[in-house]
Amino acid sequence: MKKFDTFGGVFTPTLLTILGVIMYLRLGWVVGNAGLLGTWLIILLSFLITLATALSMSSITTNISIGAGGAYAIISQALGLEVGGSLGIPRFISQGLAVTMYIFGFREGWLSIFPNHSAFLVDLITFGVLFAIAYKSADLAIKTQYLIMAVIFLSLVSIVIAAFNGSMFIPSLDAIKWGGFKGVEGLQSEKFWLVFAVFFPAATGIMAGANMSGELKDPRKSIPVGTIWAIGVSFVIYMALAYWVSRSADEEELLSNFNVMIDKSFFPPLIIAGILGATFSSALASIIGSSRILFAMGQHRVLPKGEWLEAQNANGQPRNAMLVTGIMIFSSMLLRDLNAVAPLVTMFFLITYAMLNIVVIIEQKLGLISFRPKFAVHWVVPWAGLAGSLFAMFIINPTISLVSWALVFLMYNLLSRRKLESQFEDVRSGLFTSFAEWAAKRTADTAHEQERSWKPNMLVPVTEAVNIQGSFSIIKDIAHPKGSAVLMGIGDNTLSEEREKLDYISASFKKDNVYSSVIFMKTPHFGNGVNFGNQALKGSYFRPNIIFLNMLEKKESIADYPMIIEEARRLNLGVILYMPHPRAMFGQKQIVNVWIKNRAPHWDLKDSTENPNLSLLVAYKLKKNWNCTTRIIMVIDDESHREKAQVFLKGLIDKSRLPIDEILIFPGQFTNPETKVPLADINIFGMFTLFDHEVYRNMSIKTNTTCLFVMNSGHENIFA
């Protein structure tokens, strides 16, 4: 496949797209309304917006290996295929519609010369010629654009000759003035921006060269150099033409005659040829660019039948993508009038410009070492480009702007559901990591405990993955939906055997919307492995706040639980001891009992160290996930304490805002054989000071349920 250099692949298509119909047929009207000074200001503002975007695009393209698709490829590599596709699809459609509008513009110019020709036949032949050139090869299209550039150059020469032959009869002092905006309806304060909105599409088109990215010899060099040179040359031409036309026609003529440039030129047929050439070249650049965007989306499987869309012939031309593009353009031609959707074309260009600037802003803010562009820009540049693009959108048409953004977000939502697999790494992971680090640092600097934002982040130590399978459901139901489960494998020679199993379980947690990760401690001593892991994780940004101890573990591991609990108390970590009933398991998940410690004789809610914070928070999570009944139970030593206990528990419920369904108070001792345990599917107790696994096992047997024994970390607060 032939590769193109800067001049042919970027500068020529970009320049010809900018020097379009607006230059020939609307620049005089702009000058008639805004005057020369106003027109120069409009041109300057328009080109500053596109220049800022071009500089941002140049910065990105000199930092990555850009493939086919131009701006689509740039945005996809930075923000992912979902964002790239959400812009690439409407960009492809809008560029196809732009081809149709350029064809209609060509037809109008042609009919001004040959008014008796059939309009539809002119459209059909123009489309046929355009498609044949683009389908044959990009090389033929570039050569055709060289010929068109020569025609446009001769049309400008005709204007220069007219200037030297006396067309500029108006004195320069009279020409350089602010206009009266007589040809625009609306409030006086709005008229300048209405004229700006008419002119601004002329400054777009800087993507024409970038769309050829897959067929450039050196896109990193060609896109920045070719695009910026095209903007600079076209800016000088627009400024000079505005000066010439302001001195070649009076205000009335400029406002009423769109063909003023044709009439004032030295050789009018050359201007007409320039108009035809400008519309034809713009259509040719758009049809090639849109097919390359479709081809790139096929490569990345953003669209169905991606393998068919990415097919190329022997010369490297994306023939299938070109066929689809041609069908779409021909179908839009049958509508015969695209005025209603014409603003969408400009809007999708501007949304693309905005996203390119956003990419640079993100890259600069992240400060990743991978962002080392050869063409670096000051941080003001992308911010100016972003602000200018958004400003231009809402100046041109606020309603269509909102519709355009809504379509992009809708497309993003649809693509996100497809779980697209990127063939390259994007910066989203860096973006999320940087945001998380920023948030973590801000949290670490906060003097108060983060009680309001508490959520269960559990460390689950395990010697064999099968032990987690038996407790998977309860871990998930405690953590879901915002908590996490870190699976810590502990062992000596069996780590490799357990890794695959733990990775599978971790993936299952993630599938159920519980974030999970796997770490390993290579040590034969279970207790030391857990404690050393907790000590190391204590200094991390996102550390577990609960240790989940499983009584399904080996006896030698359970023997280390007292030292683990003691170290957890020192590190201010919560503990949940899981004691499954061998037969009942979780029953029907209908009732949860939470046992509250007798607070006699001090019934003070303010004593946070004595409040069952973690027990009640765990019960709340189970209630939300099981949709079950929750009751709190207190056993009192003396029947005379019943009223105080009742007031205490009601106050606890009211202040904590917990959805407790029932309060039960029993006199006596729980350990008495006569004490009848209320029916439940799981019972939650506070943890005893002295660890005795036989006591825990007997309580599970006595309640005939699975039990959780809980120790506060001191960082939970049910009143927060």
Strand order of the largest sheet: 3-2-1-4-5-10-9-6-7-8
Low-confidence stretches: none
Taking the sheet with the most strands, its summary is: 10 strands, mixed
The value of Rg in angstroms is 36 Å
Q: Which class of the largest domain in CATH terms?
A: Mainly Alpha
Strand content: 5-15%
Overall residue-averaged pLDDT value:
84
Quick structural gist:
The chain is α/β, with parallel strands linked by helices. The chain has helices at 6-18, 21-25, 27-61, 71-79, 81-113, 119-136, 138-164, 172-175, 188-199, 207-210, 219-248, 251-256, 260-264, 268-299, 306-309, 319-333, 342-366, 380-396, 398-416, 428-445, 465-479, 495-511, 526-537, 555-558, 561-570, 613-626, 642-656, 693-703, and strands at residues 457-462, 484-491, 515-522, 546-550, 574-579, 591-596, 629-636, 662-667, 682-686, 706-711. A 10-stranded mixed beta sheet has the order 3-2-1-4-5-10-9-6-7-8, sandwiched between helices.
Give the secondary structure arrangement, pairings included.
Layout (H helix, E strand, L loop, with lengths): L5 H13 L2 H5 L1 H35 L9 H9 L1 H33 L5 H18 L1 H27 L7 H4 L12 H12 L7 H4 L8 H30 L2 H6 L3 H5 L3 H32 L6 H4 L9 H15 L8 H25 L13 H17 L1 H19 L11 H18 L11 E6 L2 H15 L4 E8 L3 H17 L3 E8 L3 H12 L8 E5 L4 H4 L2 H10 L3 E6 L11 E6 L16 H14 L2 E8 L5 H15 L5 E6 L14 E5 L6 H11 L2 E6 L9
Parallel strand pairs: 1-2, 1-4, 2-3, 4-5, 6-7, 6-9, 7-8, 9-10
Antiparallel strand pairs: 5-10
Helix pairs in contact: 1-7, 1-11, 1-14, 3-9, 3-11, 3-17, 3-18, 4-5, 4-17, 5-6, 5-14, 5-16, 5-17, 5-19, 6-7, 6-14, 6-16, 7-14, 14-16, 17-18, 17-19, 18-19, 21-22, 21-26, 23-25
